[in-house]
Every structure is written in structure tokens, then in C-alpha cells.
Fold:
Amino acid sequence: MIADNLKYVTQRVAMCCEKTGRRPEDVRLVCVTKTASVEQIREAVAAGARIIGENRVQDALAKHRLIGDAVVWHLIGHLQTNKARDAVRIFSLIHTVDSIRLARAIDREAAALGKIQDVLVQVNISGEDTKFGIAPECLDGLLGEMGELSHIRVGGLMTIAPLVDDPEKVRLVFRALRKLLDASNGPRSAAFAMRELSMGMTDDFEVAVEEGSTLVRAGRAIFGGAQEAKA
Ligand SMILES: *Cc1c(COP(=O)(O)O)cnc(C)c1O
Structure:
């Protein structure tokens, strides 16, 4: 069933790419495993999952210990500065940097490990105050400050769309993130080009792909919970 779900999501992504003239290989699937057991993760990996997304450093450490580096680990949940060391140790991409304080903590730990840490900046497009993420108007300042850190590399932007009944309602959120990415790349050198747009979850990934997502974060679509919702 996990294999079928993976295939379904991959096919849907490919269809949305075709519809909008994008290349399917430019969209990577992050399998969000926050509710999945180690067994389920292994099943997903056997079926072709390559990127595992976890929300909490503590959970990821436990799963990473059992599954290891045969897959790539992404942090998609909020990171506290006191967990930066563990995060830098196991995650190849941290999607959720939203302050210079956190960026500096990651940079410091990455330097200690002799690693350049790839990160995305989380932007709170919709302005919901329950969400983490930096306000769009503060992005430029943060990117400027992060540009001075030598062990961090900003690859793009991430957002979480509001929960709505109709995914069309969040199209403008995704489009706004894409515009921010383009605008942020504009005034900077080619060396700073950001490419990644982490956007789209189980309920809205198709719209997100149509709007330019390069990293789709799907949990329920793969591990269950979505079929019932769709029916
Ligand atoms: C849980 C989670 C997801 C996956 O959500 P689904 O609706 O299960 O696909 C994606 N991104 C973040 C940040 C999450 O916390």
C-alpha cells in the first residue's frame, strides 16, 4: 500500500509537471515520516523513497540510528537553537531557518563539524500568527545577514500554506513564495542563486507543483490518512 501511494503521488506530480511544462526530475518528493514507524519507513525506502522528512530532531535521531544514511534526511519542522548540533549532524537540508539567531547557531555547529549546511528560509506568506517563518518583508534583511555566514548555504525558500478546504485557495500563497524567490535572486550575484521552493503537502501538492514547487512534502498521501479524506 505504501508502494502504491508513492507511485500515485509520483504520477500526480509528473502530471502536474506535464500540464505546466516542467520537468518531473526538477521536483523531489520528501516523504514526511512524523507519524510513520521505522517499519513503514523501510517499506517506503524499499519502494523508492529517497528523502525522509522529519519534524522533530529527537524523533529523527532515533529513526536515523536504525535506518542510517541510505536515505537523505530533511528537517521540515521548527528547530530550536539548542538542537542545532544534532540537526547539523544528521540532516542534509534544514527547511525551517527563520531567524539570524538560528542561522548563526547552525553555522557555528556546521563549522565545528567541517560541514557546509544546506538550508532553506521558512517564510510565513499567509501571515497566520500560529506559524513559524519570517515575514516576507524581512526576508531580504535576513538573507543579507546569512550571506556573511561561511558554513551555511541558502538554497531557497519554504512555506506552509494555510489549511483550507479547496487547494485552489492557496495557489496565491505558493505563487507569492515563488515571486519572493525570483525577487531575492534578482539583486544578488549568480553565486547566490536560490533554486528550491519547498511547498505543497498532501492536500495541496498538485497546486504547489503547478506553481513551481521543487520539494513536495507529503506525509498522509504516502503513509495513510489521506485516502479517507479524499473519499
Ligand atoms: C506534517 C507536515 C507535512 C506533511 O503533511 P501531510 O498533510 O501529511 O502531507 C509537510 N510539511 C510539514 C512542515 C509538516 O509538518
Notes: The CA atoms of residues 161 and 170 lie 6 Å apart. The first strand starts at residue 28 and ends at 32. Residues 32, 34, 55, 76-77, 160, 201-203, 217-221 surround pyridoxal-5'-phosphate (CB under 6 Å). The two ends are 16 Å apart (CA to CA).
